[in-house]
Design brief:
five-stranded antiparallel β-sheet; Rossmann fold; 309 residues; 10 helices
């Protein structure tokens, strides 16, 4: 649905995208994860033809819409009919109701009055705003606003949804609701591409995650695979306390002696059985043995740190 090849975008001296490669396949829920300033919005704006990158290639629905500094405007207009977009800093008309909002947006897509009413009802039910359809948006919470913006992005029944930081500022309930709506989109065969700088937003809902740092995609994989490969690298942290000093010969773990009988050990996996064996063979006893596996958040931060360069 989206194929980006070697995309370069500079703002003056700032290289926002530094040869970005990214592929989003049909039916995927793709989480585009990266710290602030990594280039997420720049990628999204380029994909939609809203800014001009200097180099690279962008294909949408298999059609080339951008190549080396030029958009194919005709092609772009055509494919954009199949895209729903929710910008990062979108505003709503405060004095309108959700019904009126969707009515106006629907009209701009050329839907008839009858179609608009039907679509507005379907969408407001989907995003759980049907009950408040006639209340003014001005009084809405952040979560309600985000859900209305999503309904707006869905008005043209798009095959591809592109959402820029849709869950930022939502509380845990708001995030759970939003994820649920995204999952329902997948069930209907839609493709969803959304950005976030918060790992928890992409967890549980995305089948693929791409991590962008400094304008380059560093990893693109399932969240489980990303976690596994980093666990291997980051390792397990084991805290050991024994009743008397023990020595660790012929092992290649990183060992830090905290005191005579306390050790911090970093190893590629769960080495508790091996530790047990070593301690026991030296006639010592284990007083404490704790294993700490890095959290996914730590894995993500480590990945960001490694690529800051
Ligand atoms: N219009 C602009 N003029 C100059 N620099 C810009 C402009 N837009 C973005 N940048 C810079 O380009 C880099 C990438 O910005 P971008 O907004 O794409 O990042 P992001 O990952 O979306 O971050 P955030 O989550 O903070 O929005 C940053 O260094 C940013 O300061």
């Amino acid at each position: 649905m989206i194929e980006i090849e070697n995309l370069v975008k500079k703002y003056g001296d700032i290289k926002a995208l530094d040869g970005l490669n990214l592929t989003v396949k049909k039916g995927q829920i793709y989480g585009f994860l990266g710290p602030n300033g990594a280039g997420k919005s720049t990628t999204i704006l380029s994909t939609l033809g809203l800014i001009y990158p200097q180099k690279g290639r962008i294909k949408l629905f298999g059609e080339e819409v951008f190549r080396d500094g030029k958009y194919n405007e005709k092609q772009l207009v055509e494919v954009k009919k199949r895209i729903g977009y929710m910008p990062e800093h979108a505003t709503l008309w405060e004095f309108l109701t959700p019904m009126q909002t969707l009515d106006i947006v629907g009209e701009s897509f050329g839907l008839s009055k009858e179609e608009r009413m039907k679509r507005a009802r379907e969408l407001l039910e989907l995003v759980n705003l049907w009950e408040v359809r006639d209340k003014k948006v001005g009084k809405f919470s952040k979560g309600m606003r985000q859900r209305l913006l999503l309904a707006q992005a869905l008005i043209n029944d798009p095959d591809l949804l592109i959402l820029d930081e849709p869950m930022t500022g939502l509380d845990p309930t708001g995030i759970a609701e939003f994820k649920d709506i995204i999952r329902r989109q997948k069930k209907e065969g839609k493709t969803v591409f959304f950005s976030s700088h918060i790992l928890a937003h992409v967890e549980e809902v995305c089948d693929t995650v791409g991590v962008i740092v400094k304008g380059k995609l560093r990893v693109e994989d399932s969240i489980d695979n990303i976690k596994m490969s980093f666990l291997k690298k980051a390792g397990y942290l084991i805290l050991l306390e024994t009743d008397k000093p023990v020595s660790f010969d012929n092992v290649d773990w990183e060992i830090e002696k905290v005191s005579e009988t306390k050790y911090k050990i970093k190893a590629p996996g769960d080495i508790r059985p091996e530790i047990n064996e070593i301690v026991w063979s030296q006639g010592a006893k284990i007083l404490q043995l704790m294993v700490r596996v890095p959290s996914l958040e730590e894995v993500f931060l480590k990945l960001v740190e490694e690529n800051k360069g």
